[in-house]
Design goal:
heterotrimer, A mainly alpha (445), B mainly alpha (215), C alpha+beta (403), B: 215 residues, mainly alpha, two-stranded antiparallel sheet, 9 helices, C: 403 residues, alpha+beta, Cytochrome-c3 Hydrogenase, chain B, 17 helices, globular
Chain lengths: 445, 215, 403
């Protein structure tokens, strides 16, 4: 016993983890193998029978998981871009160029005390962040990232998007009401007023687009915009785009419409009393929302995953099987030759550099080149890789725009906000709808 | 204002975008020391006169006046007799060494601390009682103490400081000001402690920055 | 109508306190005004802004009675930063009081030292050398610019714009470093002395100043392009906190806030002191009297201050920077009043001497205090968010108000 405990005590922390994990993993693996071996046939049958359900479950899980890195990326972008626009350097200590700072932010909210103020309604107080985060994650379901890369293609996808986006207001109101704090209450009520008002121009602004497209499926809307970039709906619905963009800014509570968490007025609005991971949920939901509204703007008005021009079909036919023995030889020789070739310039020009350093550098360069070549190959020959890249590139342009607006603009006042929605955006959206309808009547589509 | 609504916003956005690409003004502080004015008064450092000797007279007035007790002083007094200290311990290298030794239980090889040899506190207390613990009569207290002990032991000075509420610096200053007050015993003059360890510790603590060019 | 219990009320148990959800009023009400204010009608609520609030420019507590988002009544509560500076000064000798002046209006410290030394010079009948006067004007106007830049940056920050404050700080840091190179400190300068200034201009200061002056105007204007025409900013400010000249005078307003109502009252011209009569500058005014006018007027003042600095550099005579003053200052019994045009208005000091080396009585007049009392006039009927606009445009410094 003592021998074992002494041996255990000498293990480092990773050693302990691995030591415990290995038998566990073995057990799980054996169990899985047994299950698959015995029940393999029925499971495959079931999966093929409910393929759509299985696909949806996998997609939903992936979406839930990718929200976290997305939020981290946008938080980092926000810190860095605003800093650069302020002539500051921004985060540059944690990780290369401060990239890990947002991850540290995430860890920080995880380890902080999860505090419920006395007097708060604990149930609603706890549920509110879940509702807010859930609503923003659920909107991601209808977003088409690339051809064939979407969780679910509803035929009422756009309606679903608006409905789920509107659900967030319930969470914010819950948070504001249950916090037992007047700032929270004001923030919650502000968010209710703001979101309800901006839902209307938001929905009306895409009505013209729907008349043009004749479908509500976001996937179909994106597919309609293929070809040259002139096919994008922004050129047919410029006013609709402007209204949509403004309304969506208000929906995502971004500056200049971030009245719900106006830090110079009502401290942190609905999130005043929140701490720890509950605040983290609000925090992440805000940045996931930025991604979602950017992605939706791209999908509706900027062609989604379509390239701005018809991409020449350049599928490089590479059949590894036809190479035969040369494939093996290539795999064996190409890295060696590539590394040596790429390290040659360093060996020849930098006499101060030892040979091993040059070779290591050459190997790193070789890897970079190979990964780059593979990326280009994937971009050219796989539709969804190209689509995903175009989609993300366009989306992050809009994310940049949101951050850029935050760096520039002051906040509007609550009455100006409401007045703008009802007096300007609403009539403009209606005008857009009527003009579109009239144009369709005249031109006959 | 503008004829076209929104042009002001566009102008502001273009300004921030231009600033996005401009060089940044942040000074990365620990790597790049900031540009401190020659005349800047906020530095805490001991200055040297043109002959290369320390201007500080170890009067402790700065340490005593420091409201947040960030000034910590240790050194030899001007007559090279006593190792004196004021302020929170363990700020400087010499203090760290001493306190480490003391914590380890070993004797501190510092002649200054031999001066803290136990004295008859009762005598000091009775003198203080006679003078009604009045700090205004400090000179009288010190003279009476010297009459009782033949010189002014450090322990007695500390006791006076403690009981009258006067700063130790002030008492030390008074005691070292008057010629007829002695801080060391008459018969056996204190072996002047070597300044070398202190100077070495000082050099280690301040590095090459010990002598600023603008002193 | 319900009155609300307070934590100070012994009859209130903790459970009741948790349910009451109201800021703690003084209990029992000390005045009729408090009685009226803390009596909350149905549909109204009291909201505490401060003392730990991001946009109170210090530690100001403001209790607002809100009807929805509209402010019904407002009660500023002062004194969270009170340090008893006036009493401290009466127990310090004349030189020491100058260093007590600095942390009063901590963004424009030189303007707090200035009236103090002016008052002592009157008491002691000391004539300040002309070069010292020019240096005072030069450093003072630099300090005015840095103070105005800060005010404008925080104005934008309180409205939610995060960038202008940093652009302001870039310029302000230049000036602060400049002043540090001549005075020795970045914020609490302690530079003016009775009978002159502590130290002549030096090469470091002049090179920094020349470097900055060559691009100051362009830089300040470029930075203001971010806000001045911005529709969101203009609409937040125009017509908010409007006050007419009569009321402003009645409320004892001075400085840029008064000039924004159209009254061209400036101590530098109305009661000339130092070498201002020899300098050529305009007194900008605006007639609107709203927050936007107060904001824009500060930009105009910055331009005038740059003009003054330029003239100072050209006209500065040679000579000593300190008069011959006695080491121990024992002025004859008497009283002296000195006033200067600080960035926020008329900053005055009234000192009485009884013949000892300490002032017998010492009184400080701070302009922000008088601007702050107008909240009760300006706020009712406005929205909650307008308080930030009005507060930022009045630009109070709590260090000076609470003394």
């Amino acid at each position: 016993m003592t021998v074992m405990s002494r041996a255990w005590g000498r293990l480092t922390l990773p050693g302990k983890v691995i030591f415990t994990a290995i038998p566990l993993l073995l057990a799980v693996g054996v169990a899985l193998a047994l299950v698959v071996g015995i029940l393999g046939g029925p499971i495959v049958e079931l999966a093929s029978q409910y393929g759509a359900v299985l696909r949806f479950l996998v997609a939903a899980t992936i979406i839930l998981v990718i929200t976290i890195p997305t939020a981290f990326l946008i938080i980092f972008m926000e810190m860095k871009i605003i800093a650069f626009m302020n002539l500051r350097v921004g985060p540059d200590r944690v990780g290369p160029w401060g990239t890990l700072l947002s991850v540290v932010h995430g860890l920080k909210v995880l380890v902080k005390e999860d505090f419920t103020p006395s007097g708060a309604d604990p149930l609603i107080f706890t549920l509110a962040p879940v509702v807010v985060y859930g609503s923003s994650v659920m909107t991601l379901v209808v977003l088409p990232f690339a051809p064939g890369l979407f969780a679910q293609d509803f035929n009422i996808g756009l309606l679903y998007f608006f409905a789920m986006g509107g659900l967030a207001v319930v969470g914010l109101l819950m948070a504001g009401w249950s916090s037992f704090n007047k700032y929270s209450l004001l923030g919650g009520l502000r968010s209710a007023a703001q979101m309800v008002s901006y839902e209307i121009p938001l929905t009306l602004s895409v009505a013209g687009l729907l008349l043009l497209a004749g479908t509500m499926s976001v996937n179909q809307l994106v597919a309609n915009q293929s070809g040259w970039f002139t096919n994008w709906y922004v050129f047919q619905q410029p006013l609709g785009f402007v209204i949509f963009f403004i309304a969506v800014t208000a929906e995502a509570n971004r500056t200049p419409f971030d009245l719900t968490e106006a830090d110079s007025e009502i401290v942190a609005g609905f999130a005043t009393e929140y701490s720890g991971m509950r605040f983290g949920f609000f925090f992440f939901a805000e940045y996931v929302n930025v991604f979602i509204v950017s992605a939706m703007t791209v999908a509706l008005f900027f062609g989604g995953w379509n390239a701005p021009f018809p991409f020449p079909a350049l599928a490089i036919l590479l059949d590894p099987g036809s190479l035969g023995i040369w494939l093996l030889l290539g795999i064996a020789i190409v890295p060696l030759v590539g590394t040596l070739l790429l390290s040659l310039p360093f060996l020849l020009t930098r006499s101060s550099m030892p040979a091993w350093q040059a070779i290591v550098l050459g190997f790193v360069l070789f890897n970079v080149v190979v990964i780059g070549l593979l990326g280009v190959w994937a971009f050219v020959s796989f539709d969804w890789v190209a689509g995903l890249l175009w989609f993300l590139a366009k989306t992050y342009v809009f994310v940049f725009t949101f951050v850029w607006m935050r760096a520039t603009l002051p906040r509007v006042r609550i009455d100006q906000l409401m007045g703008f929605a009802w007096k300007w955006l609403m009539p403009a959206a209606l005008l857009n709808l009527f003009v579109t309808a009239g144009a369709i009547l005249v031109v006959g589509r | 204002m503008n004829l076209i609504p929104g042009i002001g916003i566009v102008r502001g956005m273009s300004l921030t975008l231009r600033r996005f690409f401009q060089p940044k003004v942040t000074i990365r502080y620990p790597e790049v020391p900031s540009d401190v004015a020659v005349k800047f008064r906020g530095r805490l450092q001991l200055l040297y006169d043109e002959n290369g000797s320390l201007k500080c007279e170890t009067c402790f007035q700065c340490a005593q006046a420091c409201p947040i007790e960030c000034i910590d002083m240790g050194g030899m007094d001007t007559k090279g007799r006593f190792h004196v200290h004021w302020g929170a311990a363990e700020t400087y290298g010499e203090r760290r060494e001493e306190s480490a030794l003391r914590r380890s239980g070993r004797p501190v090889p510092d002649p200054a601390y031999e001066r803290f040899a136990p004295i008859d506190i009762a005598a000091v207390d009775s003198i203080l009682e006679d003078f009604d613990h009045d700090p205004a009569q400090l000179l009288g207290i010190l003279e009476a103490t010297q009459a009782a002990f033949d010189y002014l032991p450090v322990g007695a000075l500390k006791r006076i400081s403690e009981r009258t509420g006067t700063g130790y610096a002030q008492i030390y200053g008074t005691a070292s000001f008057y010629g007829h007050l002695r801080l060391g015993a008459l018969g056996a003059p204190a072996a002047a402690p070597s300044a070398a360890p202190y100077l070495a510790a000082l050099a280690a603590a301040t590095g090459a920055a010990g002598r600023q060019a603008d002193a | 109508m319900t009155t609300h219990a307070s934590m100070d009320d012994p009859r209130v148990t903790l459970d009741e306190q948790l349910g009451s959800f109201e800021p703690i009023p003084p209990y029992p009400p000390r005045t009729e005004r408090e009685q009226e204010f803390y009596t909350v009608a149905d549909g109204e609520m009291l909201v505490n802004i401060g003392p730990h609030h991001p946009s109170t420019h210090g530690v100001l507590r403001v209790v607002m009675k809100l009807d929805g988002e509209r402010v019904v009544d407002i009660d500023p509560v002062l004194g969270y930063l009170h340090r008893g500076v006036e009493k401290l000064c009466e127990n310090a000798d004349f030189h020491h009081t100058i260093s007590y002046m600095d942390p009063l209006e901590y963004v424009s410290s030189l303007f707090c030292e200035w009236p103090a030394v002016m008052a002592y010079e009157k008491l002691l009948d000391i004539k300040v050398p002309r070069r010292a006067e020019y240096i005072r004007v030069l450093t003072g106007e630099l300090n005015r610019i840095s103070s105005h830049l800060l005010a404008m940056g925080f104005h934008a920050l309180d409205l939610g714009g995060i960038t202008p404050i940093l652009y302001s700080f870039i310029e302000r840091d230049e000036m602060v470093e400049m002043l540090a190179s001549i005075t020795g400190q970045r914020m609490l300068f302690n530079y003016f002395r009775i009978g002159g200034v502590n130290g002549d201009l030096n090469h470091e200061f002049m090179s920094r100043l020349g470097d900055w002056m060559s691009r100051a105007t362009a830089q300040v204007e470029a930075n203001q392009g971010l806000l001045n025409e911005n529709e969101v900013f203009v609409r937040r400010n125009r017509g908010v906190g409007t006050i007419d000249a009569q009321t402003a005078l009645k409320m004892c307003w001075t400085g840029p806030n008064l000039r924004a109502t159209g009254v061209p009252f400036d101590i530098r011209r109305a009661h000339p002191y130092s070498v201002y009569p020899e300098l050529d500058f305009d007194i900008p005014t605006r007639s609107e009297g709203d927050s936007l006018a107060r904001y824009l007027l500060r930009i105009d003042e910055i331009k005038q201050s740059l003009r003054i600095i330029d003239q100072c550099l050209h006209q500065m005579p040679d000579g000593p920077v300190m008069a011959r003053v006695p080491r121990l200052m024992r002025p004859r019994p008497g009283r002296a009043f000195a006033t200067v045009e600080a960035p926020r208005g008329q900053y005055s000091i009234y000192a009485v001497s009884d013949g000892t080396d300490q002032p017998f009585r010492f009184r400080i007049h701070d302009p922000s205090f008088l601007h702050l009392q107008s909240f009760t006039l300006l706020m009712p009927g406005q929205l909650l968010a307008d308080w930030m606009t009005i507060n930022a445009s009045l630009d109070p410094i709590m260090g000076g108000i609470d003394k």
